[in-house]
Amino acid sequence: MESNYYLPEPCLLHPEQVVEYQYADLLPERLRERIEEWEEATEHDYQDLSIAEGWKAGGWASWHLTDPYPMMCECGQDMRLLLTVASNEWSAGYTWRPIEDEPTGTEPSYPRTREPTMITIGRGYSLWIFICPRSFEHPHQTIMQ
């Protein structure tokens, strides 16, 4: 049977509100310096903690494969992230994971817990859809990372 990587498998939706913080390279220089000091002192990684993985509405793009790219509308307005369609809900190497995916000892085998929709974007990337906050009539833009 042929697999369709863009047709989601039925799964449960467990909405949860997550506070995210902007990608580090887009922050003011002094704040980036303070974050680097904090990372050295605590052995934590800001990028791993600041942006949640998985499918989400709103939030921030992580720009983990490339440098940040300015998402500008044709009207000159900075665009905002509307939706992230992700191949994975979380990665084993990161510290963020949805509450419902906490280990219980009875969880299904991989990849179901990390890929509940069974959608694959590219080679395991995410698709970001950006919109203009000035007008929904302006064209959206997409990026895959």
Can you characterise this structure?
This protein is an alpha+beta fold. It has a domain at 52-95 and 106-144. 13% of the residues lie in helices and 13% in strands. The protein has two helices and four strands. The chain has helices at 29-42, 46-50, and strands at 56-57, 80-86, 126-131, 141-144. It has a four-stranded antiparallel β-sheet, with no helix packed on it. The longest helix has 14 residues, at 29-42.
Would you kindly provide a brief summary of this structure?
The protein is of the alpha+beta class. It has two helices and four strands. It has a four-stranded antiparallel β-sheet, with no helix packed on it.
Ordered list of secondary-structure elements with their pairings:
Layout: H1 29-42, H2 46-50, E1 56-57, E2 80-86, E3 126-131, E4 141-144
Antiparallel strand pairs: 1-2, 2-3, 3-4
The fraction of residues in strands falls at 5-15%
Looking across the biggest beta sheet, what order are the strands in?
1-2-3-4
Residue share in helix: 10-25%
Structural class: alpha+beta
Average per-residue pLDDT, rounded, comes to: 83
| Spans where pLDDT lies below 50 across 5 or more residues | none
Radius of gyration: 17 Å
**Major sheet attributes:** 4 strands, antiparallel
Individual helix count: 2
The SSE string, one letter per element, is: HHEEEE
Total beta strand runs: 4
Measured distance between first and last alpha carbons: 28 Å
What would the principal axes of the Cα set say about the shape? flat
